[in-house]
Amino acid sequence: MSLHPVVARVTDRIREKSAPSRARYLQLVERMAGRDRGSDRLGCANVAHAFASMPQDARFKVITERAPNLGIVTAYNDMLSAHAPYAGFPDVLKDEARRHGATAQVAGGVPAMCDGVTQGTPAMDLSLFSRDVIAMATAVALSHDVFDGALLLGICDKIVPGLLIGALQFGHLPMVFVPGGPMPSGLSNTEKAKVRELAAQGQVGRAELMEAEQKAYHTVGTCTFYGTANSNQMLMEAMGLHVPGAAFIQPQDGLREALTREAVRTLLGNVKTRRFTPIGRQVDERCIVNAMAALLATGGSTNHLIHWVAVARAAGIAIDWDDFAELSSVVPLVARVYPNGQADVNAFQAAGGPGYVIRELLGAGLMHDDVLTVREGGLREYTRVPVNDNGLQWRDTGASRDESVLRPAAQPFSVTGGLKLLTGQLGRSVIKISAVPQDRHLVEAPARIFDTQDALLRAFQAGELEEACRSNGSNGLVCVVRFQGPQANGMPELHKLTPSLSVLQNKGYRVALVTDGRMSGASGKVPAAIHVSPEAAAGGPLGLLRDGDVVRLDAEAGRLEVLVPHEDWIRREHARLPASQAEDNGMGLGRELFAAFRRNAAEAEQGACTWL
């Protein structure tokens, strides 16, 4: 199948606008790759320090026999259910390396915070910035510069983008990402959401809510909804950075260890044969477009409209929301996974998983098949699924085993990817409409302005929002939560708002959210114009809005407007972040240490990068 003309056009545009920065990046990759290996290049004292903790025979291998030495960067902690399985991975990886005449070392660990724990708390203000901390920590780990390749262990929201950004600073090395898999299904995501909505209305208490949450999040493994963490895993498959089909095999499955060992064999295959597939060459504009297409086709997390902009920039590639939006116009939605459907990621995997999605997109000309991957067989290998049949093997994905979850590209759930770019007087923003009911794609209603999410929740609990919906003549309300961007407070997710706004929508009111903050990858059914740029704290137009202004959010036309006379609008004074709130944003739970991040953060559409 020839490449779809829109995919070709977007790729060419990205290649053209990225040419100078990509050329500089690749020059560095070539220069670093051309050096002698670390144990030959470094001074004797440096080498002795690097390998002092190794057993004598391993030291002999790496120094005298010049055996490959692999670095392991791990996001292990046992606070995150998704990362707890990584506790034993280094021993497995080292053992497999030894079996093939190589050595491996844990080069370093990176922090990994759980947004599920910090959601709605001040600690969430650190969440987005933790991505760049993880990138820096990855760079510190690999800066010992004695590795012939690296294995990267991480799964969740900011961890994979952070690892990838850090890895791309060592673009001369071949690398393989090693996932851990999702937890088995517990209480369904739909039932969990219902209990949350009941709790928001005071119809169930803390005990009932706690019971439901613990049934949903009940053991080790990634959370089972298709949020940012599981979107990460889909994108790693689409970029060819995993062992094929590794994403959604559960930690308890015997296949999991086989795939983990295969990651070592895959990496060593590239190192020993000198197949020049360093990660910096792999992650090119075609690879980035493949990731974008996979995100759109599966209704993945909107957080990646920030993260993958940053990932691309780390490889010298410039993308923006126009690129996402144009691809969304032709990439069909072929998956329905919660919050875009009822199924969880285990059902997604059982129906065909990433292999099915990649096969369908390649077949429709919506992904590039001429890309480098960690496997010699290229991206076509990622259309198969792994099985443990007298050893690790791969088989054809076959037809969808559940067309309520996965459909062919020729018969999709939607002919577009469900992502829309919104422009207008209120700035540039994005909306994911794949989970939003068709009759809610347009909301025009008076605005109620909030400077914090807690203020909105207090208004909901006091009945003020429902009263406003009833009394303003439009049967609706646009809730605006501003001063939530990277420079204001680190751009926390506002997922805590979802149950309350869902309650209003379920009662028949036409409600929408407009914010310069983020929404969780698990949010979706309430129309939300998010990531509004420029943000209010940087002088963006949300600072000009006033209570009662009529806001029009039109996802079909791609517009976000305020129906205020132009003369009035241009005379308004810009609201400022209250001094007390600005002070609160920077104090407590370590937020003091991130003042420089807030000062230097780029806009959301520039990846909210703090390292530019």
Folded structure, characterized:
This protein has 612 residues and is of the alpha/beta class. It folds into 2 domains: 326 residues, no CATH class; 188 residues, Glucose Oxidase, domain 1. Helices cover 40% and strands 13% of the residues. An 8-stranded mixed sheet has the order 7-8-12-11-10-9-13-14. A 4-stranded parallel sheet has the order 2-1-3-4, with helices on both faces. Helix 8 links the parallel strand 3 and strand 4. It starts with a helix and ends in a 12-residue tail after the last helix. This is Phosphogluconate dehydratase. Pathway: Carbohydrate metabolism; Entner-Doudoroff pathway. Its cofactor is [4Fe-4S] cluster. Belongs to the IlvD/Edd family. Catalyzes the dehydration of 6-phospho-D-gluconate to 2-dehydro-3-deoxy-6-phospho-D-gluconate.
> Counting H and I runs of at least 4 residues, what is the number of helices?
25
How confident overall, as mean pLDDT?
A: 95
- The termini sit apart by 39 Å
Q: What structural class results from the helix and strand content?
A: alpha/beta
The share of residues in extended strands comes to 5-15%
Backbone CA Rg: 24 Å
Largest pleated sheet: 8 strands, mixed
Strand numbers in spatial order across the main sheet? 7-8-12-11-10-9-13-14
Indicate the multimeric state: single chain
Number of strands: 14
Shape: globular
Please mark out the parts with pLDDT under 50 across 5 or more consecutive residues, or reply none. Answer: none
Whole-number count of domains: 2
Jot down its keywords:
612 residues, Glucose Oxidase, domain 1, 4-stranded parallel beta sheet, 25 helices, 14 strands, 40% helix
